[in-house]
Design goal:
The protein is an alpha/beta fold and about 260 residues long. It is built from eight helices and 14 strands. It is elongated.
Length: about 260
C-alpha cells in the first residue's frame, strides 16, 4: 500500500478552535451530522460517523488536551520473517512515521490492540520531541512513560504502561497509511481530539463542519439557559434544542446584527 497523503491540510486556526471544545461536543457533532445524513437518505446507515470514539484508549498523561493532525503507523502481529524484512534502522517505518511529525501533529499507532506491549519508549519518542510533535496515541501500551511525559512534555494516550520492550517478530509495517487504532479508522491528516475522557477521530473533511456546529451549539445552549431563567421553566422545555429553536436563535442573532 502506498503512503497516503492527507486530502486536506488542516490549518493551525482549525486546531486552535478545537482546543477550546470538549470531547463530548465532538461526538455530539458527529452524531448530529449522522442523524441529518440518515434523515436525508431515508435511514441509510452508510452515512454514519458514530464509530469515531476509541473506547479502550485512555489518557496516560492526565490533564492534557490535544487537537492535532494524525500521522499514522501500522504494526503487524508477531512473525519472525516479517520482522527481518521490515526492520531497517533509521529507515524503518516507525522512524519514517515519527520524522513526518511536526508541530500540530500526533503519531497514531495501530498495534492490533496488543495492550501488554510497550511499543515506544524514551529513545524512539525522542524523535517526536525533537520534531515538536504533540504526542502519541496507540491501542498498545507505552514504556518509559514518566520520562516521555516529564522530559519530553508529550501527551500520551494508550492502553496502559508496560515494561515489556517488545515482542520478537512484531515489526512496524507502514508509515502514513490508513490504520485501525482500537477499531477506529484513522487516515493520515484526520483530526485527533483527546483529553481525560479519551480519544475521538474527526475525519479531516468534516473538521470545519464539526467545529462550526459545536461553536453554534454552545451559543444555543447559552441562549436556552437565558430562556429558562427568564421564563422560570424546566430546561426540558427547550433542551435538547430542536431545529426550530436553532433557527429561532439564528433569526434573532441576524436581527441583532442589522
Amino acid at each position: 500500500m502506498a503512503n497516503t497523503k492527507p486530502t486536506i491540510d488542516l490549518s493551525g486556526d482549525i486546531l486552535r478552535r478545537f482546543e477550546k471544545v470538549s470531547l463530548q461536543s465532538c461526538t455530539g457533532a458527529l452524531g448530529y451530522i449522522t442523524r441529518q445524513a440518515k434523515a436525508a437518505t431515508n435511514g441509510d446507515t452508510s452515512s454514519s460517523w458514530t464509530n469515531c470514539y476509541m473506547k479502550n484508549v485512555k489518557p496516560l498523561t492526565h490533564g492534557r488536551k490535544i487537537a492535532a493532525r494524525a500521522r499514522t503507523l501500522s504494526f503487524l502481529p508477531p512473525r519472525p520473517d516479517m520482522a527481518a524484512k521490515l526492520r531497517d534502522g533509521e529507515n524503518s517505518p516507525e522512524f519514517v512515521a515519527m520524522e513526518s511529525c511536526g508541530p500540530g501533529d500526533v503519531l497514531v499507532v495501530d498495534a492490533n490492540r496488543m495492550s501488554n506491549l510497550g511499543i515506544l519508549g524514551n529513545m524512539k519518542t525522542r524523535t517526536l520531541w525533537q520534531r515538536g510533535a504533540t504526542g502519541l496515541i496507540t491501542d498498545a501500551s507505552v514504556r518509559d512513560l514518566d520520562k516521555v511525559q516529564d522530559d519530553y512534555g508529550l501527551a500520551v494516550f494508550g492502553a496502559g504502561r508496560s515494561a515489556i520492550t517488545g515482542l520478537e517478530g512484531s515489526p512496524f509495517h507502514e508509515a502514513n497509511v490508513p490504520i485501525s487504532c482500537d477499531g477506529v479508522l484513522v487516515l493520515p491528516g484526520d483530526l485527533m481530539v483527546a483529553d481525560d475522557d479519551g480519544v475521538v477521530v474527526v475525519p479531516q473533511q468534516l473538521a470545519e463542519q464539526v467545529i462550526d456546529w459545536i461553536e453554534e451549539h454552545d451559543r444555543v445552549e447559552e441562549y436556552i439557559a437565558e430562556l429558562v431563567d427568564e421564563q422560570q421553566v424546566s430546561p426540558g422545555r427547550f433542551y435538547p434544542p430542536s431545529e426550530e429553536l436553532r433557527q429561532r436563535y439564528r433569526d434573532e442573532q441576524a436581527k441583532k446584527a442589522t
